[in-house]
Structures are given as structure tokens and as C-alpha cells.
Amino acid sequence: MPNARMNCFVDTNVLVYAADESNPDKRIRAREWLDALASHNSLVLSPQSINEFYHVSRRRFPSVARRDVLQACEWFLVWCTAALDVHTIPKAWLIEEATGYQWFDCLLLASATIAGCGYFLSEDLQHGRLIDDLKVVDPFQISPFEVFTSG
Predict the structure, then answer these.
(1) Number of domains in the chain
(2) What is the average pLDDT across 68-82?
(3) Residues 81, 114: contact at Cβ < 8 Å?
């Protein structure tokens, strides 16, 4: 049985980079992370992640067919194990007060902590910061190998 503390909640920006052909270095690294997390059964998303990915992808990549964006979202649904519900909101309020982060980031962080994740993968938040027992990891500063061998 996988160690829940090794589970990694992936921020929407990493999902978007995995699809972004205009930034090949970040695309490669984001895909490396997603592949590693999926192969370790450690990838965690919430409904918010998938909704944001869909919205951003439709706006940012207008030449990509809608069916292709939907196909990516359907793949992500398998990993949608973190809740976004009435219990997430009060936790997000506490995180917002403690960190000053943007509201939608706080909702994602709350989903990740409630799901028992050990890591939160994002380039938008402070690398190495602890929020409860959740460690923020910038995927462009550290490799999945480094996380899996240190955890």
C-alpha cells in the first residue's frame, strides 16, 4: 500500500505546462513529474484542478481541439481523489489567514491537506514552505527522483 504522505497534489499550473508546447523545457519537466507521480500512484488532484485546467487550456491554447482538452481532463479524472466540498472551505480560510495566498490557491492547499498529501507541486508558491504537514515543491527546482528518494 502506498504511503499517503508521499502523495503529491499537483497545482493547475503544472498541468497546464504539461500541455504547453510554447515552453518545451517546462513541458518536459511537468510531464516528467506527472509520469513519475502516476507510476508511483501518488498523483492527487481535485475537481478544482481539472476545472481550472479545462478553463485555462481552452483560453490559452485556442488551436487545440476541444476534444483533445477533454481527453486530457478525462485522464486527470482518474487522479481526482481530493475533495472540494463544504469541509474544504473553512480549512481554506485558515490557510488564507496564515499564508496570505490567493483564495483559489488556498482552496487547492486545503484539498491537499484534507486528502493527507505530503507534497504540493507548484511553481507559484514558496518552494520548501510547510503548510500544516504539506510541503510545497517547485517542480522546476527539484526532480521527482529527489522527492521520492528523500521521502
Answers:
(1) 1
(2) 94
(3) no
Q: What is the pLDDT of residue 151?
A: 54
Residue closest to 81 by CA, chosen among 52, 124, 111, 101: 111
At 117, the amino acid letter reads: C
pLDDT digits (tens, 9 = 90+) for 79-115: 999 999 999 999 999 999 999 999 999 999 999 999 9
d(CA 117, CA 53): 20
- The mean predicted confidence, pLDDT, of the chain is 92
Q: Specify the CATH number for the domain of residue 93.
A: 3.40.50.1010
SS3 label, residue 103? helix
In three-state secondary structure terms, 9 is strand
CA 24 to each of CA 18, 21, 145: distance values in angstroms, whole numbers, following the listed order: 9, 6, 20
For residue 82, the enclosing domain spans 4-150
Q: Please, what sign has the CA dihedral across residues 15, 70, 47, 144?
A: negative
